[in-house]
């Protein structure tokens, strides 16, 4: 038997720099929701639609993309995901758990690449029909620490950026979260996965009552 969460569902976003553990935590939350018998859908950006998966491959492998090219490609992927997956799931009273959203574009293309934040805000609004999450988690970690984790795997074009770029991205995330403290929960990612997962679940379950 599944449980209802309300008239619209619940929209949860995980954000963070490369190697922060956000993907792990988004999957752990989805498993917890499954165990509780709550209808949920785990998604990632870019990806999880036919259009999004093609764009994900281009973004990870192309070497001739500037910040604006990244912005427009990410927005096309996001539009497909919001229209075809997120909005229908929320309308069916599901919990949507999303690995990255508009805030990644603000942090990476805005603070990291230097694109005007107002331009990004406008494009994000168009791509999402101004759909905002109910809960946002920032897994915060110093990029120098996070890259110790990533050295074990293959690095994509984002991870190959220099450390100064990733420090700008982190600073951007912190500024974004400071501007809306009712939305954001900032969690120190230098903790065990279990400890972080407990903190995440404590926040989420309050919204399920």
Structure, described:
- By secondary structure, the chain is an alpha/beta fold.
- It has one domain: 3-Layer(aba) Sandwich (Rossmann fold).
- It is built from 8 helices and 5 strands; from the N terminus they run E-H-E-H-H-E-H-H-E-H-H-E-H.
- It has helices at 22-35, 50-61, 67-91, 102-112, 117-128, 143-150, 163-178, 193-207; strands at residues 10-16, 40-44, 95-99, 135-140, 184-188.
- It has a 5-stranded parallel β-sheet with strand order 2-3-1-4-5, sandwiched between helices.
- Helix 4 crosses helix 7.
- The mean pLDDT is 93.
Give a short overview.
The chain is an alpha/beta fold and 209 residues long. Helix content is 54%, strand content 13%.
List the helices and strands and how they pair.
Elements: E1 10-16, H1 22-35, E2 40-44, H2 50-61, H3 67-91, E3 95-99, H4 102-112, H5 117-128, E4 135-140, H6 143-150, H7 163-178, E5 184-188, H8 193-207
Task: Using brief descriptors, characterize the structure shown.
alpha/beta, five-stranded parallel beta sheet, 5 strands, 54% helix, globular
Which residues sit in consecutive blocks of at least 5 with pLDDT less than 50? none
The tally of domains stands at: 1
Structural class: alpha/beta
Strand content: 5-15%
What is the number of helical segments per DSSP (H or I, 4+ residues)? 8
Q: CATH superfamily assignment? A: P-loop containing nucleotide triphosphate hydrolases
Order of adjacent strands in the largest pleated sheet? 2-3-1-4-5
User: Kindly, what is the distance between the CA atoms of the first and last residues, rounded to a whole number of angstroms?
Assistant: 17 Å
Provide the succession of SSEs.
EHEHHEHHEHHEH
């Amino acid at each position: 038997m599944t449980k209802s969460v309300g008239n619209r569902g619940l929209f949860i976003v995980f954000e963070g720099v490369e190697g922060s553990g956000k993907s792990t935590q988004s999957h752990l939350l989805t498993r917890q929701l499954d165990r509780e018998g709550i209808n949920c859908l785990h998604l990632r950006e870019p990806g999880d639609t036919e259009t999004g998966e093609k764009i994900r491959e281009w973004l990870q492998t192309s070497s001739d993309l500037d910040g604006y090219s990244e912005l427009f490609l990410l927005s096309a992927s996001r539009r497909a995901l919001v229209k075809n997956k997120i909005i229908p799931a929320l309308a069916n009273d599901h919990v949507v758990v999303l690995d990255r959203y508009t805030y990644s574009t603000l942090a990476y293309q805005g603070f990291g690449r230097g694109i005007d934040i107002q331009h990004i805000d406008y494009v994000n609004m168009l791509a999402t029909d101004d759909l905002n999450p109910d809960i946002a988690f920032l897994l915060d970690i110093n990029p120098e620490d996070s890259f110790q984790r990533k050295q074990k795997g293959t690095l994509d074009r984002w991870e190959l950026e220099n450390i100064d770029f990733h420090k700008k991205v982190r600073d951007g995330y912190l500024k974004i979260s400071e501007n809306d403290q009712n939305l954001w929960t900032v969690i120190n990612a230098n903790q065990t996965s279990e400890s972080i997962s407990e903190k995440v679940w404590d926040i989420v379950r309050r919204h399920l009552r």
